[in-house]
Amino acid sequence: MLLSSTAIHSTAPIAFLSISAPKVGDRKSFRSNGGIETTTTTKATTTMTVYRNHKYGTNNKVSKDSNASVVFDVDFPSDYSELLGQAKKATEMAMKDNKQLMEIEFPTAGLKSVPGDGEGGIEMTESMQFIREFCDRFVNGEKATRTRIFFPEANEVQFARKSVFEGASFRLDYLTKPSFFEDFGFTEKVKMADCVKPEDELFLVAYPYFNVNEMLVVEELYKEAVVNTARKMIIFNGELDRIRSGYYPPFFYPKLATLTKTLLPMMETVYYIHNFKGRNGGTLFRCYPGPWKVLRIVRDKCICLHYQEVMPSLKEVALDILPSS
């Protein structure tokens, strides 16, 4: 959804959180005529030039790292090519700072879209295309065979090998495999220790949000094959905001809820875009090592309304920061 190009002054908390509900259905049905649908060359319809809103004090120190956030200031991307370039640089800088578990999250249906704007299967297909483009930029030739990309299920690996990743040297694997009760939402976990090879250096986990068990397998992979090693892991479009926000009730999903205390605190979000709908809409944006910024488009300019060192909750942005700006 396009953000308003007019500044609207209102104190009503009507910038709504946008977290899509879990999709229900057969993964094998999400491919559209076997085609790859992507928006990698789509240009943003609004010129976005980020600048500071001085009432928030641009001289505030927001990072203690050697790469100070106030120095590393990145404009909101104008298209997906620029976005992937920013994500690549952010990931490289995070790895230089010895970050081992990283997150990249952005909408695939358009730079101004929110979760749910695109059909679930199409969003996954677009994420697959973006992952290939990101890996082509980020992983140099000789390291491709030491990069293992985990898709949620085996059938997606087969699809990737025949389409987006055809001819690529990356190692493709999967987190879960179908069970006899697949139609009821049950899958069988894959033992992660059996998938990992000694030469593996980087794991990239692709959109592990369709089934709640997928993130539990990701935690297993991290503990068994990343911790106490030199390996790195990137979670790409995992929709982790569902877990952060308590979308899954802890009473029904106790193991998933514990990830907020075990896995997520170990993670560095190196690149992030989340848009908010409503009259007080806006965008939460972060490009490592920069600060977390709340942006809004006003008269074709992307203004920074607020920034801080730690990630604010989506609820805080929607109900506090955006309405008061």
UniProtKB/TrEMBL annotation:
Domain DUF1995: 77-318
InterPro entries (UniProt xref): DUF1995, LPA3
Pfam families reported for this sequence: DUF1995 (PF09353)
Full protein name: DUF1995 domain-containing protein
Organism the protein comes from: Cephalotus follicularis
